[in-house]
Specification:
With 542 residues, the chain is mostly helical. It folds into two domains: 390 residues, no CATH class; 129 residues, Transcription Regulator spoIIAA (2-Layer Sandwich), CATH 3.30.750. It has 24 helices and six strands. The strands form two sheets. The protein has a four-stranded parallel sheet, sandwiched between helices. The protein has a two-stranded antiparallel ribbon with strand order 1-2. Strand 4, helix 21 and strand 5 form a beta-alpha-beta unit. The relative contact order is 0.15.
């Protein structure tokens, strides 16, 4: 009984710490995104409180921390700009987006997300990160935030002649703190909070002449029912659909990260439905919509959160901060929030792909740059749609170019018998898995899922039967497979059939991850190595 109570107490403590940790990260982000969208800091904070609380209660069992995120903020800011800051119409669109999320959760359309090629996702995220950075350069030098990237760039050249140096000093100080803060300190207290406190204190202490948040409502939001007619609904449907797709995709991606960290399986339909209900409530309160936020969710999990209680505690902590420190919040300079958002924009940029971009194929690069430029200078959803279509066309062309009639000998029957007897004799401690067919972005996710249940296996012989090299999506999928198998303490023996594939995997450090001595060009050699290694291990354990 005591052990059970102790275990429950540990879980509750982890949830409390996770809720506190995620709330501390959410505070500056919610304030900054609220100001950046034109809704105001209060709308960002109340959106984080309402969405996180409702989605936390109705959502999945694992702790999923929700709130306004970069992609959502960019869409809302774009809609505000397109509709001339008509708040009634924007609130209607947010409510419609929530309803569309609920409808989407009742269909199988959510499964389409796993077929989106990696260059499309990377181009989109890089575009969003660059948009956030561009939009915050003007407020960093003491001028108003603009909601269009082209307009921001045009005004930057004009505003450069009238810089508010007080704002610039605070902005640069913020950037120095958030980028140079040692990791060991950042793990305890997020650098954004440290920057927020220090820079606000400096600005008040020395009387800096800068624009500030000024006033933030601490009253509970009032119920709002947006006025609408059939024509308005039809006209705004494209915006609502764009927002619903972005919010749902962000939530699903966060769900995948959460699944990976917790070794669990969240129901995507359940997740998106809860987010939809939460966003409808945000609209009715005049607050910003959002999604499950990856950074805040990971922070909660790293702090020890285990259950959805953490997602309930996080908004409670935000409320306490909102009521207790509203006077301090009102004094926060907009240049400081701009510096924080620039760091957030930088964090969104896909650094992982940029490090290996020189090894990416031309087709991957075409897709990435098309999506990137369309995202930054045109429309987010058009960018994703164009990227998917282009990737599909380029892959179809590549497949067609490689198509030819070949004579292939019958697969060695002795090898088949050897594989079957091997698994039986060694009680599945040695397994052989063949990856057949084209291993590309369409099949990568499916293959990853099939490697989750290999309990009891000590040596896995992974035989990649195809001689083609891999695209960038498959490279990252292959890396994910290797890391998952290593997490299960499974030794991987890789059988490949050409040196070009070996060189490609070597450039991406996958060979180093597996170990060069564990890579073979013959399945028989791999089997002999596994049998020999297993026998040695058994002798040592006797």
């Amino acid at each position: 009984m005591i052990e059970v109570l102790r275990a429950k107490a540990e879980i509750l403590l982890g949830d409390i710490l996770g809720g506190i940790n995620s709330a501390i990260i959410a505070l500056p982000q919610a304030l900054a995104f609220g100001v950046a969208t034109g809704f105001g800091a209060g709308a960002g904070l109340w959106g984080a409180v309402i969405l996180c609380f409702i989605a936390g209660i109705l959502g999945t069992k694992t702790p999923m921390i929700s709130g306004i995120t970069g992609p959502a903020a960019i869409v809302v800011a774009s809609v505000m700009h397109a509709l001339g800051k008509d708040l009634n119409s924007v609130i209607l669109i947010i409510a419609m987006a929530g309803i569309l999320q609920i409808i989407l959760s009742m269909t199988q359309l959510l499964n389409i997300v796993k077929y989106v090629p990696y260059p499309v996702i990377s181009g989109f995220m890089n575009g969003v990160g660059v948009i956030i950075i561009i939009l915050q350069i003007n407020p960093l030098i003491g001028h108003p935030t603009l909601s269009s990237t082209i307009e921001s760039i045009q005004n930057l050249f004009i505003n450069a002649h009238s810089i508010n140096y007080d704002a610039l000093i605070l902005g640069v100080l913020t950037l120095l703190i958030v980028f140079l803060m040692p990791k060991r300190i950042n793990k305890v207290i997020p650098s954004t909070i440290i920057a927020l406190v220090i820079c606000t204190f400096v600005s008040v202490k020395y009387g800096f002449n800068v624009d500030r948040i000024n006033a933030i409502s601490i009253d509970f939001p009032k119920f709002i029912m947006p006025h609408a007619n059939f024509v308005d609904i039809v006209n705004h449907l494209q915006y609502a659909l764009t927002l619903a797709v972005v919010l749902s995709s962000e939530s699903l991606l966060t769900g995948l990260v959460c699944d990976s960290l917790t070794k669990s399986k969240n129901n995507p339909q359940h997740l998106v439905a809860a987010q939809g209900v939460g966003n409808i409530c945000c609209a009715m309160a005049g607050a910003l919509p959002g999604s499950a936020a990856t950074m805040r969710t990971v922070a909660a999990l790293k702090a020890g959160a285990k259950t959805k209680i953490a997602a309930v505690i996080s908004p409670v902590i935000l409320l306490l901060l909102l009521f207790k420190f509203s006077g301090f919040v009102a004094e926060i300079p907009l240049a400081v929030l701009a510096g924080i958002l620039i760091k957030i924009g930088y964090d969104i940029i896909d650094v992982k792909l940029l490090k290996v971009i020189k090894y990416a194929s031309k087709d991957d690069l075409y897709v990435l740059w098309v999506v990137f430029f369309l995202t930054v200078f045109y429309n987010l959803i058009v960018a994703v749609g164009a990227g998917i279509v282009l990737a599909a066309l380029l892959y179809a062309k590549k497949t067609a170019d490689n198509a030819k009639l070949v004579q292939k000998t019958v697969y060695d029957k002795d090898i088949i018998k050897l594989e079957k007897s091997l698994e039986k004799d060694y009680k599945h401690k040695i397994r052989i898995v063949h990856i057949e067919g084209q291993f590309f972005f369409g099949s990568a996710t499916q293959l990853i899922a099939q490697f989750d249940e290999l309990l009891g296996t000590k040596y896995l012989i992974l035989n990649y039967d195809v001689c083609d090299t891999l695209d960038i999506s498959a490279i990252f999928a292959f890396e994910d497979i290797v890391l998952r198998l290593k997490d299960q303490h499974i030794k991987i023996l890789l059988v490949i059939h050409n040196e070009n594939l070996f060189e490609q995997l070597e450039k991406h450090n996958i060979i180093a991850e597996i170990g060069e001595r564990h890579v073979f060009y013959s399945e028989i050699d791999a089997i002999d190595f596994a049998k020999s290694s297993l026998k040695k291990k058994l002798k040592r354990n006797k």
